[in-house]
Amino acid sequence: MKKIGLKTILIFLLTMFLFYYLLKDNFIESMKLLKNANYLYIFLAVLVFILYIIVESYLLYILINKQKKSYKFKDAINLDIMTKFFNGITPFSLGGQPLQIYRLNKEGVTVTKGILILVENFIILQITMSIMCILYLIIGYIFNVMPSGFILYCTILGVIITIVSLFVAIFSCLKTSIAKKIGYFFIDKFKFIKDKENKKEKWSSKCSEYSLGYKDLVKDKKFIVKCIIINFIYMSIYFMVPFFTFKALNTDININFVFSMIFGCFIYTASCFVPIPGGSVGAEYSFIHFFEVIVKEVFIVPGLLLWRFITYYIPMIIGGIMFNIIDSKSVKNK
Fold first, then answer.
1. If you ran DSSP here, which 8-state letter would residue 1 be given?
2. What pLDDT sits at residue 74?
3. What pTM was estimated for this model as a whole?
4. How many CB atoms lie within 10 A of CB 290?
5. Mean pLDDT for the chain?
6. Nearest-angstrom CA–CA distance, 169 and 288
7. Which residue has better confidence, 70 or 273?
8. Per-residue pLDDT for 154 more than 90?
9. Quick check: 50 and 318 in contact, CB under 8 A?
10. Reduced to 3 DSSP states, what percent helix, strand and coil does the chain have, rounded to the nearest 5?
């Protein structure tokens, strides 16, 4: 718990620095825009984000329910919200997975089955994001709304990494023995890797876990398609949030759902590969440089602050509180 508290404080300090840096040049103007914001659109933005949580939780629920039929949907919602906290305080959002295995084990799901659920969820997410990235890249060029320069190169790199991650995951599942040998080769070659035998053991275990998860998933093709559709729906809902945050600042802003989803997809992709909790800096940088293509400069920073509070800080705070309450109850009951 001390480590969690320390990480939370560091994120708070980083957030304060980012807000200061972003607002230092136009603080008064930004505060005026936020003060005079249309609260109906802010409410709709929050409502859309809640809908995203519900649909995302439903996908988690059907994956868990496949392993444990008595698992309840409300427990999946609680788990998903708690995951937002642990993802939010760890680099690459890695903290959510151990939390999910821990909580599922408390609910009577074995660690092996818990890992199986996470692997299936990851594979489905990678398939969905690969499809969305390619689709939105094409649509972005058709509508001529893609940015140029450094941010464009980052976007293309993010798309490539997403697709390569999918192929690496599938290859590791189909050709486990070859994947293990390739992993061992790189572990031996990189001199900075310490305790090589331990790393090899972990890599071998990871390959076996992914192979089991993939084989369990592909048994039912209709189930895979259903999961991908649900994933596509909830990610699309999530990418709509900037539309409402900008409309809250000025209803005449030239933005629509298509542009919001295109930019939202690439902002999400860019954030995933930033080794800072919550994808901080990467999320803010990409948000600013994507939306400056269609939104006036004066609205971008206030829109960013609204979007970040709704999609990152508020759910992270609620998730942290929820974890402490639920975990304390579990300890008392035990």
1. -
2. 94
3. 0.86
4. 27
5. 85
6. 32
7. 70
8. no
9. no
10. 80, 0, 20
Q: Among 128-132, 135-139, 173-177, name the one with the lowest average pLDDT.
A: 173-177
146: left (phi over 0), alpha (psi -120 to 50) or beta: beta
Q: Assess contact for 209 and 115: CB atoms under 8 A.
A: yes
Higher pLDDT, 271 or 234: 234
3-state secondary structure of 254: coil
From CA 292, how far away is CA 21, in angstroms rounded?
17
Angle at 288 between CA 287 and CA 289, to 5 degrees: 95
State both tokens at 256. 């629509």
Which of 48, 1, 20 lies closest to 247 in space, CA to CA? 48
> Lowest mean pLDDT: which of 31-40, 235-244, 319-328?
319-328
pLDDT tens digits for 56-97? 999 999 999 998 999 999 999 999 999 998 888 777 677 788
Q: What is the signed CA dihedral for 242, 245, 249, 251, rounded to 10 degrees?
A: 70
Looking at the predicted structure, is the pLDDT value of residue 10 above 70? no
Query: What's the rounded Cα separation, in Å, for the pair 216 and 180?
Result: 20
